[in-house]
Amino acid sequence: MTTQGPPAGISVHPVPGLPEFAPGDDLAGEIAGAAPWLADGDVVVVTSKVVAKVEGNLVRVEPGTDREAARQRAIDAETVRVVARRGPLKIVETRHGWVVAAAGIDASNVAADALVLLPEDADASAAELRTALRARLGVTVAVVVSDTFGRPWRDGVTDVAIGSAGLPALIDHRGAVDPHGNRLETTQVAVVDELAAAADLVKGKLAGVPVAVVRGLRLDPPEPDTGTRPLVRLGAGDLFALGSRDVVAGRVPADRVTPRAGAPDAVAEAFRTAALALPEFPVVLSYGATDGGIDVHLSDAPTLSAALNLGAVLGAALAHLRAEGWATRWEPVTTLGAASLAGRLWVGAAGD
Question: On the CB side of 345, how many CA atoms lie within 13 Å of its CA?
Answer without folding.
Answer: 27
